[in-house]
Write a structure and sequence with these properties.
By secondary structure, this protein is α/β, with parallel strands linked by helices. It contains 9 helices and 12 strands. β1, α1 and β2 form a beta-alpha-beta unit. α1 packs across α8 and α1 runs antiparallel to α9. It binds NADP nicotinamide-adenine-dinucleotide phosphate.
Length: about 280
């Protein structure tokens, strides 16, 4: 094993802050379940360039990249795949025998979560938000043959994103006419500790057969609770988080990830946090 001081493989997450990241818990549980001699370590990064050099220097096999480094990290890698380049963000680094390869598994985690419940091809999805997460979601929907329609608080950003990806957008004033095969919240509205907020009027949710919130804390956001009451099929952001992690695991180890074990540990932690 090249560059490693022992037989133990090392994986990591780079972020700042990183204290609340659930990735170490999820990935360590997956590595242990598969019987791999490996550790997954959180690093609160203060100098990104030096941290990335450290991946090669220390022989770290793979790194999850989280806020605020998903875009900046692209400057320090040897290769970046097409998806990450289009999205403009890398959330996964794979150390392939000293070559640092960047990819993005957020979009795929999203697509797989949605496809577990509904068809994407040929369908229209209203995407609330036009930030970093929305970019991956719009990319994923288009790649799978879906038709995203973007709506955002700052209308100019919705328009710019729609133009970049060749899809449509709505202005806030059109919210009352909006209906589609699915509604996807990509904004932080409704995230703890502001669980009383929702990005969409509850009395207008029945226009959407499927409602997904990419927030996973709380697990059941106000949007999802109201959508369920309105008779919609609901999908929590937990699924996207687990599945983006499972794709990372597959890239790094070449093995299918133990999805249910990963879901089990993250769910237990989120439930524990919610009851505090
Ligand atoms: P971001 O780049 O800061 O974008 C935030 C978006 O939300 C922008 O479009 C912003 O609108 C909108 N927004 C923010 N506050 C709002 C408010 N009070 N009312 C209406 N719109 C508001 O953030 P991001 O990186 O895309 O992350 C967004 C959320 O996705 C976070 O909650 C994050 O935890 C979650 N996420 C989940 C996963 C997962 O695996 N489940 C993965 C990635 C991200 P403006 O343009 O008007 O500012």
């Amino acid at each position: 094993m090249k560059g490693l001081p022992s037989e133990c493989a090392v994986y990591a997450v780079f972020g700042n802050p990183v204290k609340h990241s659930l990735s170490p818990l999820m990935h360590q549980a997956a590595l242990d379940r598969m019987g791999l001699k490996a550790v997954y370590v959180p690093f609160c990064v203060t100098d990104l360039k030096e941290a990335v050099l450290g991946i090669r220097g220390l022989g770290i096999r793979g790194v999850s990249v989280t806020l605020p480094f998903k875009t900046a990290v692209m400057n320090y890698l040897d290769e970046i795949d097409e998806g990450a380049r289009r999205i403009g963000a890398v959330n996964t680094i794979w150390n392939d025998q000293g070559r640092l390869k960047g990819t993005n598994t957020d979009w795929l985690g999203f697509v797989l979560s949605l496809q577990a419940h509904t068809e994407i091809r040929g369908r229209r999805f209203l995407v609330i938000g036009a930030g970093g997460a929305a970019r991956g979601i719009v990319y994923g929907l288009i790649r799978e043959g879906g038709h995203p329609v973007i709506i955002n608080r700052t209308a100019a950003k919705a328009e710019a994103l729609a133009r970049e990806f060749g899809c449509s957008f709505l202005s806030g004033a059109e919210i009352h006419q909006a209906g589609a095969d699915g509604l996807i919240n990509t904004t932080p509205v409704g995230m703890a500790p502001h669980g009383e907020d929702s990005p969409w009027p509850g009395d207008r949710l029945h226009h959407f057969p499927v409602v997904m919130d990419i927030i996973y804390n709380p697990l059941q956001t106000r949007l999802l609770k109201e959508a369920r009451t309105a008779g919609c099929l609901t999908i929590s952001g937990l699924e996207m988080f687990i599945r983006q992690g499972a794709e990372q695991f597959k890239i790094w180890t070449g093995l299918e990830a133990p999805l249910s074990r990963m879901r089990e540990v993250v769910l237990a932690q989120l439930t524990k946090d919610a009851n505090r």
